[in-house]
Amino acid sequence: MDREAELLSKSRIMAFSTQTFDQFQRNNACGPGAVTPARHFNVMDIEERLRSGEVYPAYVRRDFYKIMLFRGKGVFHFGDESIPVSGNTLLFFNPRVPYTYGSLPKDVRGYFCVFKDEFFTDGLRLHLDEIPLFGPGVKPVFSLDAA
């Protein structure tokens, strides 16, 4: 079993624990550091995150949402499914499904934003559970390259 498969196997045991938004913010020193006063939103650079040294995030649920614009090759693990991606890809993560990703090459680029449900409900009166992209059973990966 290679290192990536071993780490994924071990981390699936932890899938019933939950990483909070505050824990993520405290443990992530690679963002611009500016969050809204309500502390419900942040944007980060994938390249900076990789340089920070956290290559294998734990396979756990999070209590926040993430939208990622990803450029490169990688494998993302959602629930019991592993989804290889390449090129320009848009990914949607939600608190109901544990996830992680495999090792990423150094030439990966992109950005992601993390946010709590309150970011939308407080200002926009919108519930993310009502948006199909975050609904159950939706494959949260969309290639942006021409087919």
List the helices and strands and how they pair.
Layout lengths: L2 H10 L5 E2 L1 H7 L13 E5 H6 L9 E2 L2 E14 L2 E13 L5 E3 L7 E7 L1 H7 L17 E3 L4
Parallel strand pairs: 1-3
Antiparallel strand pairs: 2-7, 4-5, 4-6, 4-7, 5-8
- Average per-residue pLDDT, rounded, comes to 79
CATH fold name, please?
Jelly Rolls
Protein structure class: alpha+beta
State the helix count: 4
Number of strands: 8
Q: Name the poorly predicted regions.
A: 30-38
- Helix content estimate: 10-25%
> H/E series, N to C?
HEHEHEEEEEHE
Instruction: Report the C-alpha radius of gyration, rounded.
Output: 15 Å
- Number of folding domains? 1
Largest sheet, described in full?
6 strands, antiparallel
Strand content: 25-35%
State the CATH architecture.
Answer: Sandwich
Description of the structure:
By secondary structure, this protein is of the alpha+beta class. It has a single domain (3-143), classed as Jelly Rolls. It has four helices and eight strands, in the order αβαβαβββββαβ. The strands form two sheets. Strands 2, 4, 5, 6, 7 and 8 form a six-stranded antiparallel beta sheet that branches. β4 and β5 (81-93) form a beta hairpin.
Write a concise keyword list for the protein shown above.
Jelly Rolls; alpha+beta; 147 residues; 6-stranded antiparallel beta sheet; 8 strands; 33% strand; two-stranded parallel sheet; globular
